[in-house]
Amino acid sequence: MENLNTINSALKAVSLVRSATLDTLKFMANTYQSSKDVEAEMDPNKNNSYMGELSSLSNVLETRVRELETACTLLYPTLSSINLANTELIAQDPNYEKTTWYPDMVISYRWLSNTQEYSTLAFQALQTKFSKRNSRYRQRTSNRVIQNHNLNNHSIDIFIGQLQRSFDTMPIEVVRPFGVFTVLKIVLDRTLRAVIVLRGLVIEWVLVKSFEENFEKLTSNNLAKISERNPYATNFIDLIQDDTMDIWKPSRYKVFRTITDHCNAAILHFYAPFQMDSAIKYFLQWLRSYSTLFSAVCRKCDSRLLNDMPPTWHDFRTHEPYHFECRPY
Q1: End-to-end Cα, the chain, rounded Å
Q2: What is the pLDDT of residues 150-190, one digit of tens each?
Q3: Own/partner pairs, 10-19, CB within 8 angstroms, 24+ separation
Q4: Which end of the chain is more exposed for a tag (fewer CB within 10 A), N or C?
Q5: pLDDT tens figures, 28-73
Q6: Where are the extended beta strands (E) located within the chain?
Q7: Model pTM greater than 0.70?
């Protein structure tokens, strides 16, 4: 505590020295005259008063300097030393002037100080923007109708009916072979067949097969039905009417197995938890672009086949066909 009082008195002495020095320099600057004025006014009384005032200011400055020296002699180092860590080793180097440690430390200190200052300003700016975004988000969510994943079957049927009117060229059939989950059976222009498994209005799984394939399990009852209807039938389309479905067995054609992989990647792209109805619409619009699977050419190489495969990859935004090797990144 005593050392703090001594430091305060020393700082006051420094301020008094600076004030006395400033007064002396101002007096000398204000009394400066040009050579013509000095020759015109050669009054000895004025010269004596000037020298006397300058002498008094010098004496005051000298007194303030002595007071500062006295205050500095009363200062003593604090008992608790400052922990300088590894920087204490710099003083042990006899050739410290030849090294760049100290300038590098000064540059690092300035850089850290600027970083701290800029980070503080950035935090304040981001905090202001974050509060604005939160207020806008509250306004949007207050007006938004929150949809639940556990929708009843009646609501789902009404929504699928609206989709059917929008996609009149793509028949959509709603079945529930598993009781809880809704399955959409889609036929696309004699090109492919697809099943979409929904949990509420969220797409869980997509399986694509050729137009000649089906999704029913080949049980003994189904085989008996087929033989009764057409003993020479090789195409099982619309012959199996059993309630059981196989939504996991992939197509026997590589083209449609590849499209299945693309469809399951697309459901992640179009996933929107707060706009589930829009996600299904966008996905069906993208799936409808496969109606020209075997007739469209690749937008990049301008050919229909590459490695014996048609353009199986369609852009998620423009729906343009590409070969998987030609797709844009």
Answers
A1: 70
A2: 678 888 889 999 888 888 888 999 988 877 788 999 999 88
A3: 10/68, 10/71, 10/72, 10/74, 10/75, 13/64, 13/67, 13/68, 13/70, 13/71, 14/68, 16/64, 16/67, 16/68, 17/61, 17/64, 17/65, 17/68, 19/64
A4: C
A5: 888 765 434 554 455 566 667 778 888 888 888 888 888 888 888 8
A6: 172-175, 182-188, 192-199, 202-210, 313-314, 321-322
A7: no
